[in-house]
Structure formats: C-alpha cells, structure tokens
Amino acid sequence: MDADQLVRDARTRAGLTQRQLAERARTSQAAIAAYERGTKHPQLNVLERILAAAGFELRVNLTPLPPLQTNQISVRLPGGAIRTAPAPQSESGTDLTQLRRNLQLSHLDRIRKMLSTRQATLELRGLALKSGIRRSVIETMDRRGRQKG
Q1: Which CATH number fits domain 3-53: 3.30.565.10, 3.40.50.1100, 1.10.260.40, 3.20.20.140?
Q2: What is the phi-psi region of residue 85: left when phi exceeds 0, alpha when psi lies from -120 to 50, beta otherwise?
Q3: Distance separating alpha carbons of residues 149 and 143, to the nearest angstrom
Q4: CA neighbours within 13 Å on the CB side: how many for 101?
Q5: How far is CA 89 from the centre of its chain?
Q6: Half-sphere exposure of 81 toward its Cβ, with a 13 Å CA cutoff?
Q7: Domain spans of the chain, in order of start
Q8: Which H/E stretch holds residue 141?
Q9: Cβ neighbours of residue 9 closer than 8 Å, sequence gap 6 or more
Q10: What region does 15 belong to: left with phi over 0, alpha with psi -120 to 50, or beta?
Q11: What totals of helices (H) and strands (E) does the chain contain, helices first?
C-alpha cells in the first residue's frame, strides 16, 4: 500500500476531514491533500506522525527474502506479492543489473522513473539543439540510447 492510500484510509476511518487531520498532525491541509493525491510523498517520520494523529500506528517489518540463485530475479507484483522468475539471459554478455532493479520497482515507480528519464532526455535534446549540434547527430544518439535501453 502506498503512502497516499495509507493517509486517506487512516483519515477516513478516523472520520476526520483533511483540515482536522492537518491540525492534529501539525501540518497544513494542502500537505495532507498532496499526500492523498500522491503528488507529494511524506518521509517516514512525517507519515508516522500523520497516522498517529488519526489514531493509527505504522508498523514496518523487515523480513529477508529467500536467497536468489544467480539465474533468477525477484519481481514485486501489484498488491505486494513477490514472484521469483528466471533471469533474462543476455547472449551479448550485457550486464542486466539495471533490468533486475527496474523489475523490483512497483508499477507506479517504474512509470515515474520512465517519465523522469523521458523528461531529462527531452531537456538534453533541447540543450543539444540550442548548442548547435546537428539534428542528425541527436537522432543517432536517440537511436543508440533506445537500443541500449
């Protein structure tokens, strides 16, 4: 469950408005609204304070996963379930570490990462064009980047 769902669920179960919860948690109603929308993400201590203000305690358990074999990856599915699957094999000897890391992210985190990467790419492309780098060179770099990704 994401922080936005936790905050919204705790507030509604406590029968509080966003303003009432904000007053109890010593924050603003706008911050509570942003947390519930998922546009802002509270740090763990802030989340604990907000949930306590609604009458709830946040408990986090750290449990070890079973050890992975070198030819397996662990994937977190929606809902928190973890599935172990055979790791993709690279015939070219490409390091698949980044792929493994991305597969361990939640779907929402993967989308956020993709959007931020895309935004950075667009910004770099714009800077390159302003710097006088030829469009054909930029397009070649884009193609190479897509092939590596």
Answers
A1: 1.10.260.40
A2: beta
A3: 10
A4: 5
A5: 26
A6: 6
A7: 3-53, 72-148
A8: helix 135-148
A9: 1
A10: left
A11: 7, 2
How far apart are the C-alpha atoms of 13 and 50, rounded to whole Å? 13
Helix-strand-coil percent breakdown of the chain, rounded to 5? 55, 5, 35
pTM beyond 0.85: the answer is no
Q: Please write the tens of the pLDDT for every residue from 73-90.
A: 666 666 777 777 665 555
Report the alpha-carbon distance of residue 5 to residue 12 in Å, rounded.
11
Segments in the chain below pLDDT 70: 65-78, 85-97, 138, 141-149
In whole angstroms, what is the distance from residue 48 CA to residue 34 CA? 16
CA distance 2 to 111: 15
Give the H or E element holding residue 82. strand 82-86
